[in-house]
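hi! just following up on the protien thing from before. the input was this:
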Amino acid sequence: MKAISQLIICIFSIFFLASEKALCHAELVLASHTNNYFISPSATPTHYNERKTLDTELSALRQDDKLTDWLYARIAYNAENPRERLPFLMATESETWRKPQTNDENEAWLNLLINQGYYQLYTGNVLKSIEQYEKAYAFYQRKPLKSFDLVEYIFKPLGNNYTRLGDYSNALFIQNKSLTIASAKSDSLTIASIYSNLAISYKSMGDLKQAEKACLKGFGYLPPKHSLSGLLYNTLADIEYEKGDYVEAGKKVQLALYSLSGNKSSNSLYWLLSAYTLAGNIELRKNNFITARLNYNKGLQLIEHYFKGSRNREKANLLIQSGNISIAQKEPEIALNFYNQALQILRPDFRSFDYGGLPSFKHLYSENRLYDALEGRGNALSLMKKQDEALNNYLLALATGNKSRNEFANADDRVYYQKQSKRLAEVAITTAYDLWIKTKKKKYSLTILGIAEQTKARTLLDQIQRNQQSVLNTNNSNFKEYNALKRAIAYYQKEHLLHKESKALLNNLQETQYKLAILDKKIQKRYPSWNKTNTIESFPAEKLINQIPSKFTIINFFWGEKAVYIINAKQGNIDTIIRLDNTWQLKPEISNFIQFYFKHGPSAMVNNPEKFFKSSHQVYRRLLSKSLQNELQQLVIIPDDILAYLPFESLITNANYSMSIAKWPFLIKKTPISYAYSLQTWLSPAIKAQSDQKGFSGFFISKSIDENISIPAVAIEAEKLGKQLKGKYFIDEDASITPFKHALNTSKVLHLSTHSFMFGPLAQPALQLADGKFFLFELSAIARVPNLMVLSSCRTADGTMASGEGVLSLSRGFTAAGTNGVVASLWNINDGATSQLMTSFYENLQKRKDAAISLHQAKIVWITQEHSNSALLLPYYWSSLIYIGKPQIISLENANNYIVLYVALLGIPLVIMTGYFFRKRKK
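and the predicted 3d structure came back as:
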């Protein structure tokens, strides 16, 4: 897991497990129980070597109701031999006969939780360690102790555990709280160490500028030649390493080594171990293999001399890096031996598992080093031409990474993981593709599809599933609290975005986000389906393709750094898989095509239609010509990377240019086209409208934001739809936020014809309503959304690209909230054309046609009818609006239904009266 390793290579340099302060406490006599928060194995008495002696004492203490002494006795017994006795320590809570009541008992209980957290990490279980430290923090919040050092004993280990796991949002929250406490105490050394922690979190998230800034602040709190300067120099070196400046990184790491060498404190030794590891990594990048190995060996010797029996993760990492040297030297057999040694440390029983001695999916656990070792084994086996075995290792590595990803409560962290994991996904797909070409076995084509699905919209699928479960469990207290916290977060986010000067709002936001993360874990523990894995091993690709409806063809793209893979799938079968090499050349070609002809307005297309025709056909030939050989009924495109901005229906399918645009062979003339974020999101169960979700609601703002410019086409659109559809219409000043939120919860179809734009430095997608802005993140607080959202506004399918996840757009936000389908725009729409397309779209929808088909037919009508200006037939005017989502038929009422009913009601008595007079006259 090279990419992720680089992100966390310096993480262990900040962990204060064996801090001098803690060891000092541990050396106090146990009987005093004063501030005895951490008990080191080397500092504990040894009179509990016999379990019988302990059981006798524990029984007596329990009989005398001495809870404090009983807790410390168990803690001390565990500390003598934590590897074997940790289960005994963990059973303490369940065996306790009552809850702590006095201050001494509360202190002892807190001590128990801290020691449980410490020894869980000591034995390598990061997740369980986090859980116990979180319990300790929660207990402290309920029972605060005046003499307790919250930063030293809970925040430092907890924050660094989060960083180890890759949960950077929670890490930053804890580290910033630590900084506030340390600043209030003017504790300069603690402040400096926290800035180092913050720097590593920022660096791991890719924010190198902020990381460097934090590091430099840390130096400002240190006296000359303090050992902490070695830690900060090492962090600065790691930042330069991430920048790719290995010369400067080398200089900084040498300063770190100089500062730390000769200092034998436990912290300094640990930081020195980190510096040796980073020095080796730098030399490895410079291809100085001998020097790199020398540094790794120094790190291993340090562990053997000072940390024997612990620091197993760090030891495994050094072995993995040694294996990477052998890979670089084309010595796969030697490399494999290093990776195997690392695996034996991380999973001592790994030889007894399947896959030629490898753990099966069910035996994996959340551990970045395990990921690295499995990836390294895959690379070694690949060099040894053992592609099948290599693929198995890659798949296990990806599954291990997924275990970590599922522990992240924050969606941003999950998105960031998706980006980092895509590199290995490409290696795995390449290996599977080579095996498929060689053997044509179906299992390899299914593996390719499965891996491609793991790199698409995974966070989106999580959000869809969680929103559905929240709706289904509205009366559950946990879900009520969960939804309340989401609403609070959306409020704080919006207020902070609009009022940046408010630090109080930012603090409230971070506190609430952390509460939500803790609650998320609680819900996950009680409801396992809350956090489904959704990976190839838990939801196999074969099951996916068997669920594809018979009339659909799926084109699923995977866009890697070296190649693009195009997967053509139908019900029960993968027809073709095509690899396009030279991604570096293809990406700018397609990006320039999109920017030049669509994003920058219609002029390039209008001024030189023939050039556009040829360029469009070239893109079609590159991407689709080999995949679409047969007749199609309906086509679903699952794009990736830059392709998410491409209107596929506008592509030209043959090279025969005509001056008549009406005769151009657009792909849309061959088949209806819709889009999906992933095959799993497309196939996930559709939501059903609630009993109070009915009819159509439309919001129309026909004035610009500053109200100086009117948009007549929006007013015309509202007027036409008003005559066409029965529903609720909100125009200009009536189109405000409150009725909009109400309509989100109560409408079956919601139409928006207003301004949309990217707001602020983070380019947050937003909608402009009459009395304010509605942001993408606010959708997370909406309980229900309509079955169909029609976003007749500019760039509602546009947004920031998150590699491995997709475009973070307004349309994606509505999908995450639970809507089945969205009509959205890829660029700035033409108001006049859009107004006519919308009218035609709803006419088709009223005939109970599928939403995607309705939009398709509206476009077909547009490009086959005559226009006053033939340039209006060009794709810029009609292909911006696309349908993203599931097939669905929507039933809408005609605007004049009430007139028909009124006439019918009047007609019945009229017929009766006419008949009566007719008979009377006849008589």
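The radius of gyration is 32 Å.
DSSP finds 38 helices and 16 strands in the chain.
cheers
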